[in-house]
TrEMBL record:
UniProt entry tagged with the keyword Repeat: yes
Name listed for the protein in its UniProt record: Uncharacterized protein
Transmembrane feature ranges: none
Taxonomy of the source species: Eukaryota, Viridiplantae, Streptophyta, Embryophyta, Tracheophyta
One GO MF term attached to the UniProt entry: ADP binding
Amino acid sequence: MVGILGLGGIGKTSLAKAISNSIAFRFEASCFLPNVSDTSNQVHGLVQLQETLLSKVFKDCRSLKIDSSDTGTIMIKRMLRFKRVLLILDGVDHLTQLETLAGACDWFGKGSRIIITTRDQHLLTTHGVDSTYKMTGLNHRDAFQLFCWHAFKKPKPVEGYEKFVEQIINYAGCLPLALTVLGSDLYGRSESQWKGSMDEYKKIPHQDIQKILQTSYDRLSEDKKNVFLDIACFFNGQLRLDDVTVKILDSFGFCPNFSIPRLREKCLISEFDGRLQMHDLLRDMGREVVRQESPKNPGARSRLFFHKDIREVLEYDIATDRVEAIVIDLPEGDDTICLSPKAFKNMKRLRLFRCHNAHFSEELNCLPNGLRVLDWPNCPLQSMPSKFRGDKLFILRMPRSHIQKIRFEFKNLMVMNFRGCEFLTKISDISKCPNLQQMDFKD
């Protein structure tokens, strides 16, 4: 058995088809079962797949009917154990599908080959697959040609469009699905439409790309969905796989020690130079999931990361209790927010607030008591809001801030950073923070 592994749209099915077309003649029979996951989720779907497998291998069994998947399993083992076959199971996402269609190598005759395409490394490991080929994106030359064939119907771009082509290829990350979809979408478009395409694609991903990539997200458990969305919206390329990262995600109750490895196994994140990385298209897919929570009102979304949405929510006081996390990163020269005095009043579920370069026209007089992470370098506040208890805080970072006094009654606090706080003169009893593990008061 051989596994072909990779994220959605990377070309696993195309590769499997190419292999089938080139070597099928070497076997007594061959069978390509597409969309195994989708079919198996239908009523009697597994039985339908078993019937298809046997009818393709034995041409005289086209009218074969199987009454249950258990019966089908017995029939496959009995009828194929002396048959040298090529079987391709495309789009597998659950162990039951493998156990029902290709439970072991000895189900099939000597010299048979079973090829499995999937987005889940753990699935292949659990089933004892002999070897796995992990797919990567196309090289630049092939990506360039694939896109041009769809966008211009020839291997090179029309003169004057070269820079647009490079932008699209960089955005697509050499993912065949994206190159094909975007190339077809831009075919015959004017130069002005090409110019505006990148901003549009980044703002709202193309629906055909979104649909394919979101399949992996939709199949995650709730904890893993939350970790995925937090990385997509806030931490892509920033989080290191260290104790602080685990503390941040663990403070949200997301079980990162389990969730992060599973996301990696499902090809949704990777690790590069010790940092958690996510393909740009997966990032945009996750952000679109958040946008779709409330397309018209950003104040009713779980996560706020786009500077225009954050400005609208804080200035017009439209936040609801659905807001869980805010990370403010405003463009240079546009860093002042006309804060509504009650901007945070309704954010009862806010767990993360990061503010790295924004200035507020009004003093912040309210912070939700449910905050787990408060990360605010250069904070202008001289003291914390009077009604802020902070008893759920795990991470408190306010380096180079104007804070003058701080009361340490944060019983869950694990990490605090007041490095370079030259105005800080009064510190209460740190012994009231029994869980404190890291602190920094250096000049």
